[in-house]
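We emphasize that the prediction below concerns an isolated chain of 200 residues; any contacts that depend on oligomerization or on bound cofactors are therefore not represented. The input was used exactly as deposited, without trimming of termini.
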Amino acid sequence: MDTPTNLHSALVGWAKILLPLFALALLSTLFLFARGSSEPSELILAEVAAMAREQRVNAPEFSGLTDDGATVVIAAKSAVPDSTKPDTVSFSAMEMRMDNPDGSYLEVTATEGGVDGRAKVAEFLGLARMRTSSGYQMETNGLTALLDTGVVTSSGLLEIRAPFGEMTAGKMRYTMASDDQGMQLLFTEGVRLLYSPHTP
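Result of the prediction step, given as a token string:
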């Protein structure tokens, strides 16, 4: 199976099959209810109605490539498309992994978020955590990933655990260097470092 190379196309294709699938699921559920010997509970009916109204899907996963050839995979606990913006999807328990051509990788998780397929932007909202293959771990209140370039930026103050100690910073920018120098992390706006060298 070919790996999708365009997140926008994947989102549009997913949206086109979502409504028919939920219509089928709703009809199947109604047939099951009709065969039962007792009336369905209000709780079950409310859940089915909510699924039909929200067009929710569980455990979605999308994949694509950045302009530099990095593989990006986005997964979540559940997803709900925006009824007014077909290219936009909201996620709960959102995750992203980006594997770069040089073997390095980046992982991001957040309590919620979304993807704008047309703009090729992923937003990680609430408490967002980011981990790199070089040993950096950080927490912040929101991250933004440009899915065409692989650039990731923070939305607020960061708490960082680095291989050489602990840091705080006002902003962070993650990029892959175009000169084969690997990934680059740029911390700005009030950077503070508590240096903790490793002892032999």
